[in-house]
Amino acid sequence: MSKHTRTFGCLYLFFVISIGFFIFLPLAVSADITTGLVGHWKFDEGSGTVASDSSGNVNNGALTSGPTWTTGKVSGALSFDGVDARVSIPDRNIHEFNEGTNGTISFWFKLLSYPSSVDGHLVDKYDSSVGQGGYLYRITDTDGDGVRDDFRAFIHGTTNCNGCGSNVNKTNISLNQWYHAVSVIKTTSNSSELYIDGAGALISSTGNFFGAATSTQTLSIGGNEAASNVNAVIDDARIYNRVLTAADITELYNLGSTAFDFSLTNGGNKSVTQGSSVNNTVTATLVSGTAQAVSFITASGLPTGAAATFSPISCTPSTACSTVLTISALSTTPAGTYTITVTGTATGG
């Protein structure tokens, strides 16, 4: 929840009230998006045929069949043609999840067209051979409507059995819209979780895979060697060797979004006599992100016998919006100079 507090407008009970400006922000659980990062392909190079691994493990990917550099959700990205373009990253065990270990896969994708004759693989390190397993994130048809417009996170363990794969689906993926996918893989509980667009958007948690999520396959992004390619833009692909927390997932999602923020200002210093009232206009101005309703919940610092009301009690600053703060003083309210603090809270965030 975005919460801003501003000290504003001098309010006089016989004397001028001096007022400055300050902000209180709520404490938040600290996020960590670096610990356990074993693979990170930003796709920010903008040119060349190498997708560098920024995790420090130097497991760079080779651009195969001409994926093109483009603007992404977090700086640069790669665009894949759905025919044969892909990034091929050498097989390494740090990109897999042995029995007793857990991990997380994260990436942004924007689908440009729906696959027709075969599924489109976004991220693929899966082998269906006996004794193999791995993970596969693809665009397919999971709801039986005849259109490959659904996202499936598929995790399979090395203990092969019929139906022993963990499937979590997000149906009806829109074209030309960015999605942030986070897949949590837990071999310790033979389960997986899928989040689409933030920690508050858990699609499903399911079990049913057994053994390690490992394979000797190349890690492929945008397609695979069997030509299950996808026409999409992919950005900021990451592999962690731990389960990300809700704060971590939110932090990753916020890398690609501008969070809502606002500022508060007021109409200046005011004075009021005992037994009367005074108005002051408080204005909320959009600083960043998509506008949300701002509620004006408190005016603190009032002297004994004084009361505050807001009209309206909330507004939405598409650019800017205002409320009128009315301070009413009783005949017994002590004279003096008082600093009044107004708190505005973003109700949607």
UniProtKB/TrEMBL annotation:
Read off the InterPro entries from this record: ConA-like_dom_sf
* Superkingdom classification of source: Bacteria
Q: What is this protein called?
A: LamG-like jellyroll fold domain-containing protein
Taxonomy, top ranks, is: Bacteria, Candidatus Giovannoniibacteriota
